[in-house]
């Protein structure tokens, strides 16, 4: 009896030491895309952040590979775009990583698309429409207003999973908000000349950017979402381009440039490769750099 | 009777769930993900121990339902409709629950599920890049080994992926042939152990390697009875259309690896995968075997090496070479037999959800189930509809 109660005490002390040890351990964050790794970096500068994808990888088609399972196994928080963008790999990672902390949005799982109204929500989805998302367009990080909303919600989520650092998170959010709100009018001023311009682009990757700046995407290099450009489709785009009102052909850093280059050459249009996310070119080292770079690249062809 | 009941309730379940209102909502968390796989082919010949006969045929037509059951359990049902000798059969390939909330990287899966031994075994047939599984799988695991049982799995909290697990199964499909129905089999017949490690090499490449061991309590060959006639033997062996393994033994050892590459790790436009596995099955000879009847080798073995290159989003090509080297029991002695299979395939993907494949198989066998030099051409489609299934690495 004596021994047992001593053992229990020792165990209790050991447990509490372990617990306090964990509470002060670095917060491990698994981001599905680099834009959310960058946003988390702004809001939790001391966290240990891992991005599952780079700006050169199509987030629709990611392998649920061993390294990602290992990283998710150790995560305290998983931050993803949502709206089914990661449907082909995130559920598999959750299943394989057996990490109870990140299995639901009540706990350490965060979807950016849940925090805002997405564009292009569909009431009915049919695969003959291509690989479309019923929950709307998930590439929402190019809308500064929506992204700030996401930042506010993400900060609250950080506080939920790591309440001990609540004050730090509030400070970081306030700081980010101030800098972001100062940058938005500057970007809008810079992009003024782009308003009303027409482009042909690949997929609906820049839907939010165009929606914000006032650019009109008049045609898509993909015949259907998720399908590669076909020669027949490119010929129809060439016919459209010959109307003479197109500013440029726009592709993202992870998209195949061949169709765009062909069209650009035939129609004598500039081809702009925009960084899809942070890390997509040398100047996009954080979210501010990404916005700066995208606007200056578009201004470059005006 | 059980089969019929399962069929009726599954169809009812599917009908109840496929309502338009559910489709529009989020299927990722609370509502079941429903998917079907359609698979049909025409081929000029038959691969030994394969599930697909020649001529026109349907491969496995799959209907799957999965969802989180509540906040700690996940469940999945996969029903498979197969055609065999003109009969339509409904089988349950998966019907399992899995824990999602156990601490420290542990999880338990129970029910009917695919064993996690080897690289290919836990993957569904429709995700393969070739029409049939490699000969090693067909000979030793009945194509793919699923069974009723339980699994305990652990994932280590390390940057290098490291998982290990232990499984126990009923083991009916891996039982040695029992021609007279007199053998007393153990009702928990199969135990497995496996471990896998994996990681990335830069941004472009990923790899995984594994080791597995399968203990089969019922794998040893049933002793031959002296007075048995040849006719009896043939009659019982007949054409086996279950998923039963043809060559079993008490101990099976496996090693597997897979390597995948894509430029900048972007799998959409181009990617390459190379995989290979080796299996060795030992301790299969009957206990009362006369020393002079002993087989020339006291193990069966099989391996394959396969590579698939997707060179545009719409086209991929693959090559695979595999061998099986087995000892077949004839009356009271063993015959060595060998099969070499060389295969090439070319697949067209109109989208992420549809594949049309052409495959050529050259078989070079030494007495392997009666098959000698054979050329087989296959044209096959595999298409999935419904929820976007998450694929394994």
UniProtKB/TrEMBL annotation, chain A:
Annotated signal sequence range: 1-25
Name used for this protein in its record: Zinc ABC transporter substrate-binding protein
InterPro entries: Bact_metal-bind_prot9, ZnuA-like
PANTHER family: ADHESION PROTEIN (PTHR42953:SF2), HIGH-AFFINITY ZINC UPTAKE SYSTEM PROTEIN ZNUA-RELATED (PTHR42953)
Database matches in Pfam families: ZnuA (PF01297)
Keywords: Signal
The organism's place on the tree of life at top rank: Bacteria
Lineage: Bacteria, Pseudomonadati, Pseudomonadota, Gammaproteobacteria, Alteromonadales
UniProtKB/TrEMBL annotation, chain B:
InterPro entries: Porin_dom_sf
Signal peptide: 1-24
Keyword line: Receptor, Signal
Name the UniProt record assigns to this protein: TonB-dependent receptor
Organism in which the protein naturally occurs: Shewanella glacialipiscicola
Lineage: Bacteria, Pseudomonadati, Pseudomonadota, Gammaproteobacteria, Alteromonadales
């Amino acid at each position: 009896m004596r021994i047992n109660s001593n053992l229990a005490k020792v165990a209790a002390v050991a447990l509490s030491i372990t617990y306090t040890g964990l509470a002060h351990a670095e917060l491990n964050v698994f981001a599905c895309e680099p834009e959310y790794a960058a946003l988390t970096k702004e809001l939790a500068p001391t966290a240990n952040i891992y991005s599952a994808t780079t700006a050169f990888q199509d987030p629709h088609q990611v392998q649920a590979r061993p390294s990602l399972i290992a990283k998710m196994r150790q995560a305290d928080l998983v931050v993803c775009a949502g709206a089914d963008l990661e449907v082909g790999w995130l559920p598999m990672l959750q299943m394989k990583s057996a990490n109870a902390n990140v299995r639901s949005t009540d706990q350490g799982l965060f979807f950016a698309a849940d925090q805002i109204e997405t564009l292009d929500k569909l009431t009915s989805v049919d695969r003959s429409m291509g690989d479309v998302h019923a929950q709307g367009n998930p590439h929402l990080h190019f809308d500064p207003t929506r992204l700030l909303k996401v930042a506010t919600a993400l900060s609250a989520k950080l506080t939920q999973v790591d309440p001990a650092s609540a004050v730090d998170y509030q400070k970081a959010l306030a700081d980010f908000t101030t800098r972001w709100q100062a940058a938005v009018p500057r970007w809008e001023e810079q992009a003024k000349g782009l308003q009303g311009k027409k482009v042909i682009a690949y997929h609906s990757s820049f839907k939010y950017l165009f929606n914000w700046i006032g650019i009109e995407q008049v045609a898509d290099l993909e015949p259907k979402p998720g399908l590669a450009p076909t020669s027949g489709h490119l010929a129809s785009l060439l016919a459209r381009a010959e109307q003479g009102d197109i500013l440029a052909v726009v592709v993202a850093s992870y998209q195949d440039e061949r169709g765009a280059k062909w069209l650009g050459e035939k129609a004598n249009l500039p081809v702009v490769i925009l960084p899809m996310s942070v890390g997509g070119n040398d100047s996009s080292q954080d979210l501010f750099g990404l916005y700066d770079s995208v606007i200056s690249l578009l201004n470059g062809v005006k | 009777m059980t089969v019929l009941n399962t069929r009726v309730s599954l169809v009812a379940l599917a009908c109840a769930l496929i309502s338009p209102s559910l489709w529009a909502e989020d299927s990722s968390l609370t509502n079941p993900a429903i998917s079907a796989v359609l698979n049909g082919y025409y081929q000029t010949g038959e691969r030994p121990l394969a599930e697909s006969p020649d001529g026109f045929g349907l491969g496995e037509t799959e209907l799957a339902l999965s969802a989180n059951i509540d906040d700690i359990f996940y469940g999945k049902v996969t029903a498979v409709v197969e055609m065999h000798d003109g009969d339509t059969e409904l089988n349950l390939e998966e019907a399992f629950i899995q824990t999602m909330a156990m601490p420290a990287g542990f999880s338990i899966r129970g029910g009917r599920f695919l064993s996690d031994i080897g690289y290919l075994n836990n993957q569904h047939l429709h995700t393969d890049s070739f029409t049939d599984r490699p000969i090693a799988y067909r000979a030793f695991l009945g194509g793919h080994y699923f069974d009723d049982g339980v699994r305990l799995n652990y994932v280590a909290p390390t940057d290098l992926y490291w998982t290990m697990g232990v499984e126990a199964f009923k083991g009916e499909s891996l039982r040695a042939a029992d021609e007279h129905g007199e053998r007393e089999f153990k009702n928990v017949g199969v135990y497995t152990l496996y471990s896998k490690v994996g990681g990335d090499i830069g941004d472009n490449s990923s790899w995984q390697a594994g080791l597995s061991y399968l203990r089969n309590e019922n794998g040893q060959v049933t002793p031959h009875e002296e007075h048995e006639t040849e006719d009896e033997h043939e009659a019982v062996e007949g054409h086996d259309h279950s998923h039963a393994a043809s060559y079993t033994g008490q101990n099976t050892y496996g090693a597997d690896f897979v390597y995948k590459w894509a430029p900048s790790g972007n799998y959409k436009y181009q990617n390459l995968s190379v995989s290979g596995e080796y299996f060795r099955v030992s301790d299969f000879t009957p206990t009362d075997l006369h020393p002079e009847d002993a087989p020339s080798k006291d193990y069966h073995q099989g391996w394959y090496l396969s590579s698939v290159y997707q060179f545009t989003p719409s086209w991929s090509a693959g090559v695979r070479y595999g061998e099986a080297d087995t000892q077949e029991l004839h009356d009271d002695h063993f015959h060595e037999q060998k099969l070499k299979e060389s295969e090439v395939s070319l697949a067209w993907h109109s989208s992420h959800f549809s594949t049309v494949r052409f495959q050529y198989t050259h078989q070079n066998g030494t007495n392997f189930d009666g098959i000698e030099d054979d050329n087989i051409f296959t044209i096959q489609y595999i298409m999935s509809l419904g929820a976007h299934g998450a694929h394994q690495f």
